[in-house]
Amino acid sequence: MTGADGGGPAPVRIVFLGGLGEIGRNCACIEVDGRILVLDVGIMFPDPDMPGVDLVLPDFSYLRENAERVDGVVLTHGHEDHVGGLAYLARDFPLTVYGSELTLGLARNRVSEAGLDDQVTWVPVVDGERRRIGPCDVEFIPVTHSVPHAFAIAFHTPQGVVLHSGDFKLDLHPVDGRRTDLTRMGALGADPGVRLLLCDSTNAEEPGFTPSETTVGETLRKVFLARPGRRFVVTSFASHLHRIQQVVDAAIAGGRKVATLGRSMQKNVALARQLGVLAIPDDSLVDIGEVEDLPPGQVCVISTGSQGEPMSALARLATGDNRFFRLRPDDVVVISAHPIPGNEWSVGKVIDGLHRLGVEVVHSGVEAVHVSGHARRGELATLHSVVRPEHVIPVHGEYRHLVNHARLAETMGISSDRIVLCEDGDAVVLDEGGVHRDGTVPGGYLFVDGSTVGDVGHGLLRDRMVLAEEGVVMIVATVDLRAADVVGVPQVVTRGWAVDPVTEAVLEEARTAVADALAHALAEGNQDHESLSRAARKVLGRMIGTRTRRRPMIVPVIVTV
Ligand SMILES: [Zn+2]
Ligand SMILES: [Zn+2]
Questions:
Q1: pLDDT attached to residue 455
Q2: How far does residue 146's CA lie from ligand 2's centre (Å)?
Q3: How far, in Å, from the CA of 166 to the mean position of ligand 2?
Q4: Ligand 2 centre from 511 Cα, in Å?
Q5: What is the structure's pLDDT at 1?
Q6: Which among 2, 33, 272, 519 is least buried, having the fewest CB atoms inside 10 angstroms?
Q7: Which of 406, 421, 453 is the last residue in one of the domains?
């Protein structure tokens, strides 16, 4: 890894462990001289084809195998898809983690819940700070995003600057006045130049510019003013503290008091107030238990559950079983968020439930009560033109986002041989000659199911999908090995199997067919469990398949006497 053999400066190796091919579980390694810096350690929420999975992690085996070479973890911002995996990686080896104070505060939640506080050393950094971490200088550049105090990160390496955009948008009127530092990025682009830009691709398909976060504040104010005398519940991501600030401001301007509902909302609001990120006067904040005593026109509840999560505060309000608070007709619920792809159905169900209660629901399809935290094509093009990178690798997106971002980079004058399309598990090397591919490392999904991490495989998930969609047919047969004969008639037990006269008849016939198959197998001298099970499964599977066109899970249970 050193430049000793070639005599020139050491090459930089970048390994992508997640986030290139999905929105979620962002994680990459920057390696110089054999030392590794980890950039973000995120989680992903499971897809509908991952039943029973709680979370999806990056495959950590590469990091585990190279643990003694890891000098630190740098965090771009506090979203779960960037910090949520720390609580799992820290089980394997101790970590030193760098990020803004707020980012660290948000990241700490899961680590503490996992009882791993002793495994992590937290090192806060401030806007514009440049410090030596392991093999290179790391510079933390402010960007605007849907959580405050996010960074782009410039790695000053022996091969020049590698700039990672983080998740960003170009908000010219951010709520806290802290804009994306385009001046600094432009300065880096001019001198010494940016060798490689790794850039957020989430909205690479969306034309134009993402509106400023402050436009949501104006809309919220209008929505509140148009409905005087009615109670409000507003839901948003608990980490979207600028959104929460704007809800609070609109509520207070309308003479309302604010209460939080949901554990993460409560926690994050407390953390952000303590850090001075969120301004709520003490006398405007009331306990959720007190809101029933206030006139409806003086209440605004800020709640979790914007993604329709079934156990969340909002979902429980929609089904009328929230123990702190009950919605009444004439209440107004504002969903100040967009469903993450995959969550539309659950959000739809919650909205239906709210309508059943007679509640008015204001969502982004009705009023502009949400804007994205990610740059659209106009902003991406602006960043490219300011940074003028030598090479580009699109990151943070599903495959189509990465492809669209690559095409956009081409229209910005970067020749196609300088744009590298990478996926999870890919490694590249940056040297004097440019960016080259450098093999792959394990980059698959690591599933978390309750306390089990990693032992949940694709086979298990396939089994669960079959069980969910087709059910299970169990056949229990008793065989006498010494007599080489079947005892009695096999029994059939089903679960999740729709019974009708046809299927019932098939299963009835199957009992005899399985008995015959077993008798045949025994007559041929098969005595072992494996072969007898196989014989039973084969005949039963074939019968059910051809006669009912279904493929349930078939479980033969052979009892030997
Ligand atoms: Zn992200
Ligand atoms: Zn983010």
A1: 75
A2: 7
A3: 8
A4: 57
A5: 46
A6: 2
A7: 453
* Cα 114 to ligand 2 centre (Å): 22
CA of 75 to the centre of ligand 2 (A): 11
Is the same domain home to 449 and 550?
no
Within a domain: residue 315? yes
- Cα–Cα–Cα angle for 446, 451, 457, nearest 5°? 35
**Do 380 and 354 share a domain, yes or no?**
no
Residue 118: the pLDDT is 97
Q: What is the pLDDT at residue 4?
A: 47
Q: What angle do CA 138, 423, 428 make, to 5 degrees?
A: 50
Domain with residue 358: its CATH number is: 3.40.50.10710
161 and 61 part of one domain: yes
- The CA distance from 141 to 128, in Å, is 5
How far, in Å, is the centroid of ligand 1 from the Cα of 21? 13
Clarify whether residues 56 and 198 are in a common domain: yes
Distance between Cα 294 and ligand 2 center (Å): 36
| 7 assigned to some structural domain | no
Ligand 2 centroid to Cα of residue 71, in Å, is 24
Q: Residue 458 falls within a domain, yes or no?
A: no
CA of 239, nearest ligand number: 2
**Count of domains observed in the chain:** 3
**Same structural domain, 416 and 492:** no
- The predicted model scores a pTM of 0.91
Query: Does 268 lie in the same domain as 179?
Result: no
Q: Where in the sequence is the domain holding 542, given as residue range(s)?
A: 470-560
For residues 274 and 397, state if they share a domain: no
Where is the domain boundary, 453, 487, 510? 453
CA atoms within 13 A on the CB side of 250: 29
Q: How many CB atoms lie within 10 A of CB 14?
A: 25
pLDDT means per 10 residues, the chain with 561 residues, are 66 98 96 98 90 92 97 98 97 97 96 96 98 97 98 98 98 98 98 97 98 98 96 97 98 96 96 97 96 96 94 93 90 95 90 97 96 98 98 98 98 97 98 97 92 82 89 93 91 90 90 93 90 93 91 93 88
Furthest-apart CA atoms within the chain: distance in Å: 88
Q: How many angstroms is it from 6 CA to the middle of ligand 2?
A: 39
What spacing in Å lies between the alpha carbon of 144 and ligand 2's midpoint?
Answer: 10
Q: What is the CATH number of the domain that holds 61?
A: 3.60.15.10
Helix (H, G, I), strand (E, B) or coil at 56: strand
Closest residue by Cα to residue 155 from 12, 1, 10: 12
CA of 202 to the centre of ligand 2 (A): 10
Give kind and range of the element (H or E) at residue 476. strand 472-480
Show Cβ contacts of residue 561 under 8 Å, excluding neighbours closer than 6 positions.
Answer: 478, 479, 480, 481, 487
Centre of ligand 2 from the C-alpha of residue 145, in Å: 7
Q: What is the CATH number of the domain that holds 510?
A: 3.10.20.580
Note whether 76 and 177 are within 8 A (CB). Answer: no
pLDDT of residue 47: 84
Between the CA of 151 and the centroid of ligand 2 the distance, in Å, is: 10
Ligand 1 centroid–CA 143 distance in Å is 13
- CA of 79 from ligand 2 middle (Å) equals 5
Cβ-contact 426, 227 below 8 angstroms: no
